[in-house]
Design goal:
The protein is mostly beta strands. It has no helices and 21 strands.
């Protein structure tokens, strides 16, 4: 069931949603919002200084403005994977410790541990803008996702391009497990895997 869409009555001034036994979803507003994951299928949704708490909800759906997905509440590793382009904007994402999915995500924030972020098996660009932060996009869509507090970037089986907002210093560390090469970069500071192309910054 879906909180927004299958309920045939208007429900107002709600602070907490508790899902049921099925595959539940919450669709957010077409507004700037933050989805903060605090546990398996649980967390908070915040927009315009108002907060909704949810639990036992498997699918979180962002709107058409910037939706931030954050795992900052965790001090354990997050394994985050892009699964497809968002139907509205951003990208659809899964995380290994969360049984559901996050849709139309524009900004991603990792935990305090060493997190990984895996892209699609299509031509993609990883742009480094700072320590463990940057932007991911694919060649066939205008959608982007900005990321921070992500220590490992993992390219897919197509061409993955590494580029920089400013000067970059890349050191190859080995052969990629899928294709290309693994590397480190002094600005990013983390590990970068399966890179096929390096495009220098300004």
């Amino acid at each position: 069931k879906s909180f927004f869409g299958t309920v045939n009555r208007i429900v107002r001034n709600i602070n907490t949603i508790l899902g049921g036994a099925g595959n539940d979803s919450i669709t957010g507003l077409n507004a700037i919002a933050t989805w903060a994951v605090t546990g398996a299928n649980s967390g908070t949704y915040t927009s315009s200084a108002k907060t909704l708490t949810f639990s036992i909800v498997e699918t979180l759906v962002g709107g058409n403005l910037n939706d931030t997905l954050t795992f900052a509440a965790f001090n354990t590793v997050r394994a985050i994977t892009i699964t497809s382009v968002g139907a509205v904007d951003g990208f659809n994402i899964t995380e290994a410790n969360f049984s559901g999915s996050f849709r139309n995500i524009n900004t991603l924030v990792g935990s305090s541990a060493v997190d990984s972020f895996t892209g699609l098996n299509v031509d993609s660009t990883w742009k480094i803008v700072g320590a463990n932060s940057g932007q991911y996009k694919i060649a066939t869509a205008a959608n982007t996702v900005d990321f921070s507090a992500i220590e490992t970037l993992i390219g897919g089986s197509a061409n993955d391009t590494l580029t920089f907002a400013s000067a970059g210093a890349v050191v190859l560390t080995g052969l990629g497990t899928v294709d290309g090469f693994d590397a480190t970069e002094t600005v990013y500071t983390g590990a970068i895997r399966n890179i096929n192309t390096v495009l220098g910054g300004i």
